[in-house]
Structures are given as C-alpha cells and as structure tokens.
Amino acid sequence: EHAEPTGPSTAQVLVASNRGPVSYTLGEDGSLDAKRGGGGLVSGLSAVDDKLWVCAALGDGDREAVRRGVGEPGVRMLDIDADVHADAYNGIANSVLWFVHHLLYQTPVEPVFDTEFRRQWASYETYNRAFARALAEEAAPGAAVLVQDYHLALVPGMLRELRPDLRIGHFSHTPWAPVDYFRLLPDDIGEQLLRGILGADRAAFLTRRWSDAFIGCCTEILGGTGRTRIGVHGLGADADFLLRRSREPDVDERMAALREQVGEGRKTIVRVDRTELSKNIVRGLHAYRTLLETRPEWRERVVHVAFAYPSRQDLSVYRDYTAAVQSLATEINGAYGTESWTPVVLHVKDDFARSLAAYRLADVALVNPIRDGMNLVAKEVPVVSDEGCALVLSREAGACEELGEDAIVVNPYDVTGTAQALHEALTMSDDERSARTARLAEAATALPPQEWFLGQLEALRQE
Ligand code: G6P
Description:
Strand order of the largest sheet: 5-4-1-6-7-8-9
Shape: globular
Helix content: 40-55%
Largest sheet: 7 strands, parallel
Distance between the termini: 27 Å
Structural class: alpha/beta
Bound molecules: 6-O-phosphono-alpha-D-glucopyranose
Number of strands: 15
Radius of gyration: 23 Å
C-alpha cells in the first residue's frame, strides 16, 4: 500500500491526536464558533516551525467546519464517518482501552469480547488507518511524527509501512496496564496493540512505572520490544501561564463568589476533575462524609468544594457515575447541612477561571484517582495557591512519583485512610503547609510543557 500525496509535503513536525487544539460549535444561525484548547501539546508545539496537527472532527460543528473548508493553519481535521468514529472512540478507546489501562472493569461480569466488540475493533482499525494515511500524505521526507495516546495505538505500525523514511514516536498519556490485566484482551488484539505501538522508533510514557508495565507486556507477550526505544517524559505544570492566568480579573471575581459560598472563616477541601470513573470522586465524597462523621469538630468549619466537569457523556457508565456523584453530594448535604452551612459545594459546569480560583483558595486539595497517567491538578494547585495548600494524593497517580515526599499519600480505595489524611491535611501547621507547598511547586514545574515536548522531539531525532 502506498500513500498518494495530494500536494507538496512540507510538514517537518507532525502531531496526531483524537482531540485537536481547536473545536467548532455550530450556532443556530449557522455560524461556526471556534474554541481553542490548551494543554501540554499546544504550548509545546508553539515553539516549533513547519508543523501540522492532525486530529479528528469530533462533533457536528467540527464536521461542518471541514465541509466548509474552515480551519486553522497548521491543523488538519479528519472527517471520519461518524459511526466509525463513535465505534472507535466510544466503543474501543474509551470503553475498552481506557478501562484496561485504568483497571476499571468489574471483572465478574465484564469485559465481554463478542461479535459487537469485533465489529467495533474493525472501526478502530479504519479510524487508525485514516490517521496513518493523512500523516503519510502530509509529512515531509524524514519528518518527525508524534502520535498521541491509546486512541491511535495502531498508527505507528501502519504509518511505518506507508512511510519508512519517517521518525515516528508514540506517547501514552495514560497508565499502562500490568501484563496480567492487559491479558484480559483477546490475544490477537493485545498483540496487535503492542505491535502497533512498536511500529514507532520510540514509545514514551509519563512515568517509569507505566513504561515498565509496557515493557513487561511486550516481553511476556512478544518476547521483547524489538528495535523500539522506550522513554519517559514526566509532563510538568506550566508555571508562567498559570501564574499569569490565575491573577486575571475574572479569577478574582470567581474567588469572591466562592468565598461567599464557603462562608467566612471556613477551611476548604478542593477537588477539580472531569467526571471520570478513574478519578474516584465517589470514594472521595465517602471519605469526606467519614471525616464529618468521625470528627464532628469539623462540622460547620469545613466545606468540600468539588468541581466535576462533564466528560464522555455518550457512555452510560459515565452518565450513571455523574448521577452517583450528584446524589451523594445531595445526600451528605441533607444529612449534615445546616441553615448556615452547606458541607459540599458541587459544580458541574466547566469553568477554567473558577477552577483557578479554587486552586488559589484551597486549604487542602484532594487528588485521589484509582489510577492516573500523571494528574496535572496535583501539580497545578501548589503553583497557583495563594497561601499554601496541603495535598492529599493517591499513590496510584503518576504525579506521586514526583510529589510523593511532600504530599499526604493515600491508597485510593481506603476511605477511612483518606478521611484520616484529610484530617491531617486540615490540621497541618501554616509553616509546614507553606514549606511543603513551595517544594511541591518546584517539583511540579521541573519539566514545563515546552521542554517536555522538545525533549521528546530531540530524543526521537537522535539515533
Ligand atoms: C485523557 C486522555 C486524553 C483525552 C482526555 C480527555 O487525558 O489521555 O487523550 O483527550 O483524557 O478525554 P476526551 O475523551 O474528552 O478527549
């Protein structure tokens, strides 16, 4: 199979990901509104010339933009058939691969790999092939291509067949499953995934733990990693951006509003997440309820400010989880709330300025995922915090490798232990809290996004 370039291929650095740096919404009057995203790749890529970002059109707005030829320079959106995309993204990527790498299956009844799964898998292949073809068309001779995440695990292998001249990297933003869990996947599928990523010259991860797990899978299942080099790049927080953005007037306004909601003289336990099964929001609420139950001295004196922003709402498990979070928050407020005190303030509407306001105000940050590739909230809070913030951090977050010494580390399944950690965090002396916050901020910003990205690029270009 050979790629047929549509024009001169000039891109020297290409990034491929399911979700791109811009998305479009279609207004009722037919207008298209562009929304630009942030994140490590966006700021990393900003330092690079002759670049192209290949991503999928994700909704009606994106598809309409592609059809009208509306777009940004340096971004190519692929208008993949909506059903194929839904099977690949909702069916395989988010319901199978995400679950495998985050150990989310309830194994007595899940997973079931049946004919429906095989059908979705065929779509996952089609979707990966569409990316491989577009990259093969667009890449200049010898260009570097950085393929992102579990959505595109087959792309490196497919692209190598089409364009053996390219330097291909793959980066996993998630954990990698330990081999015994990875083996839940049908053997041929597991092998295809590993071989897909091993099509890259270099496969990289956020922490040593995840790269070791990947090497473990390759060794046991395939006998080794072959010619592919393995790397670790621990993305850090973007201090310059965060400090500037968090001091803007809209953030000040939201701080005032939050202070009002919390009430004078009360401490805050803050969490900010997508409403995501792996984030462990429900157990976090149980731990908070345990704190109020077992240490009544905290009643009226603390508020749990929880932001749980909608995510992957096409999937019923995510909708159910969102509902569970909401009903538990309501239940706790019903059981403990008084006329003057609301124990849990839950916000579900995405608002970045309000998240930053909460980071600045927080006395305690609760980051207790079941498993997380890195978790940037844990890294951002200490940077932004006004007066120091104690961090309660899951040992299963990638960030714990770098922040574990100055955080209060918890087993995310241990609700009693998490409640105890919250108490410790709330009672930490001011001096200790600020000393720890300073050290956390330093560790959290060791590898800012641009260096993180450029380091990958350089490593890929070296042989
Ligand atoms: C994780 C994944 C990303 C993904 C993000 C948001 O961080 O590693 O690839 O983009 O979640 O999820 P979504 O499904 O909304 O893109």
